[in-house]
Amino acid sequence: MINERKDFVSNIPGNLARRSFFLLSLYFAFAALVYLVQHFWKAFLPPWFLEYAFQIFLFCALGFLWIKGWAFKWKLTKTKSLQLIGLILVYIIGLKLLDIVLGQWGVWPLRRDLWHWQNQLLLQLLLAPFLEELLFRDYLFRAFCLEMKSLPRAILFSSAFFMLAHMSLYPGAFLLGVFSCLLYYYFESIIPCIAFHFLSNLSLYFIPYTLPHLYHALRQWGLYHLFYR
Hints:
By secondary structure, the protein is an all-alpha fold.
């Protein structure tokens, strides 16, 4: 299947694909160091660094890959652009319909403290979707496709590492990783992955406030924190 789609991995040099596990080991070593600092030497580093440490690493890793010849795929044909818009509408309308099925139509007012989470909004809605999708999907997923010669294995391994990169066994991250890989393979562009990562993180904020019946059902069934941290 991968051999039939050589254009899918055409702009990843083989030497960069072979460095994927090396970059992953650096990432987890850096993550372990940051967590140690946060717990034992927090006063020695400025708060902004601790807040954005992982995004700083991702940015540096992407810069290294760019210098070495990696280039991300972002172009979409007109047909696939329309398909992406339709998919986003299906996602949003589907959530609303599910909320209606679970209870009466109703929208809760936004809590006043919602917009106090400015740092989290920047991380969750801008930096995380962009930087994480570029590294874990556009680079790592395609590098695994080249190295493993198997699409299912590349999807499972890259999604598992994406979940572990959140420093927890978080099923929502794994499922988002699988879905993003499938999106990338079909659209051959990172744009749909970034869009749905953004929507997934945005759901953390808008589901409790605009889809109350769905929110309460997910909490009652113990599913909310499996998908939204």
